[in-house]
Amino acid sequence: MPIPALPAAVPLSWYLILSAVLFALGVAGFLFRKNIITVFMSIELMLNAVNLSFVAFAYQFKQVDGHIYAFFVMVVAAAEAAVGLGIILTVFKNRSTLHIDEVSTLKN
Amino acid sequence: MHQLWLIPIFPLAGAAINGIFGRRLSKSITNVVAIGSVLLSFLWVLKVLSGLGMFGHEAPTTAHIEHYFTWIQAGTLNVGFDLAVDRLSAVMLLVVTGVGTLIHIYAAGYMAHEGGYYRFFAYLNLFMFFMLILVLGANYLVLFVGWEGVGLCSYLLIGFYFLEKTAGDAGKKAFVVNRIGDFGYLLGMLLIFKTFGSLDFDKVLPAAKNMPADVGAGIFTAICLLLFVGATGKSAQIPLYVWLPDAMAGPTPVSALIHAATMVTAGVYMVARSSEMFVRSDIAMTVVAIIGLLTAVMAATIGLVQNDIKKVYAYSTVSQLGYMFLACGVGAFGVGIFHVVTHAFFKALLFLGAGSVIHALGGEQDLQNMGGLRKETPITFITLLCAAVAIAGVPYTSGWFSKDEILIAAHHRHPLLYWIGVITAGMTAFYVFRSIFLAFFGKPRGHHHPHESPLVMTAPLMVLAVLSLFGGFIPIPHFLEPMFPPLEAGHHGMLGWIATAAGLTGILLAYLFYVANPRLPQAFATTFTGPYRWLYNKYFVDEAYDAMVVEPVVQGSRTVLWRGMDAGLIDGIVNGIGKRSRNVGGGLKLMQSGNIRSYAAWVLLGSLVVIVVMALGGGR
Questions:
Q1: What pLDDT was estimated at residue B447?
Q2: pTM higher than 0.90, yes or no?
Q3: How far is A107 from chain B (nearest CA, A)?
Q4: Could you say which of A14, B234, B372, B486 is the most buried, measured as most Cβ atoms within 10 Å of its Cβ?
């Protein structure tokens, strides 16, 4: 069965630009937000931006590799979310704060 | 096979037993092990020699060699662990094990109240092992093993009372001075290998003998002089004799065994062993003879005025060793070995007798605090007198035979050697009888309660006394004639008697000085203050060596090697590397802010740089 042709209106570059924009937003959020949960969400945003470009390339080149990578990234992101949220909960329980600059006891 | 290896292995086993288990063994067991091992070795020597027919009229003239295993095989160098017995080593074996046994027995009595008893006997047995290896070795390298080993044991035993600084220093001095000589020996050995392609006596020496006369005079001179440097170290000749008088810091049986009877004669043995090469070089022979004679004279003059009884005998040993080298240097190797043997008898006896005197006086060594011991210690007195007449050359004692033969041989070479030797013989008789008269005659000068030594000490004295008196009748030069052809000395009846007269005059003078008129020595010392001070301070040789050799080396080591090389260069490099790493690290650690977002910023920056580089590189 032939794969239906992509609507010509949406070229690959759009997907990539979107991916880059999302990634940049993630980076900016990671760098500049102070709340740990927001930082955490920024990381998820970056991962998914990358996922988007994987899937877009996979579709463009008709190869399955990109899909597989996307699934791997999702698995990692899920595991990371579980661990990360656990850490965040514990930090909040012990410190009663989620301000990232106040959680710096490991320095020095 | 005659199982030659058993001869040295007995003392080695004794050393191992006493050295490893000695702490837990009782003194009597230590005694049995130590003395028994040497005695077994002596008996085995007798068995081997009689098995070889050495005691018969038709003793073999060639060496009996036993090859055990190839020790070093590298290129053309092939050194086997070989032991050999010929007439020369037969004589040495009998002396080493025979006198060694007597001295071990004596030491059991002498050391009875000393600490470290088992350690002493372990060292002494180990010494016997190495000495026997030295004598039995069938090539220059095995000889060298024994040569170094006896040096080690000498060091250990000189420093036996290591809690006293003088003993430790004396040990170190002996070791260092001997190393200088050993270096010469080593170079000589390498030159032998280069010249002859072998180190075996039975290859090198015939090759040396058969070498045409016009070839190799230079190479023989070089080899012989290098070997002789080794001999001057081990046998305490000028310029390396300085360690031997200090070596008297060790226990007296050690002085008797190692520093009088056996080890110090190793140099003479080695020169005699290499006689085929020495006779090919006139220069080397002359050097040996002159160094020997100079040492004999110099040490004898120092011996005239020393007050420590062991120091007197130590310088006497140096002097007598000089005689032996004089004999070798004039070509009378057999006579030199003869003097080694007789000297082993009477000098071991002198030291053991001195030890008995020191023992009787509770450690007193100064002749000026002795006196009048004739009554209290009669056996020591009589036996010591036997040794004294032997070394002084009273007719028909052992020293008379060997010394006269040396002097006659010297006269054959050059009359001047003879006359200086005769004067030295007179001095020898004087200083030995001076020590006898000071110790045994006159009134007691110390506050001691002397007592005669026990039988375990006096019995060896008596045996050695008999040997000192009658050992000269053993025809050793004749026995060695197949190896060392006698000189055509002709008839020199008169020369012998002149030497004898010199000895008797020395005894008479000593009697005048120290018995008939005891104030005379003091008068002489004040009249001739200058010479007396020179002699009393041993010509200031130690001081001169200190100034010329020791100080420059110490100062050079301190300033150049320690402060300059070690502290400056090496420490500088190491510390510099450390300091530099710390500086770099100090700069880099600023990057480790501990702030996650700054790390993320670095990561971002890094990725951007990579992307930019890739973009500039054309997207590849």
A1: 67
A2: no
A3: 5
A4: B234
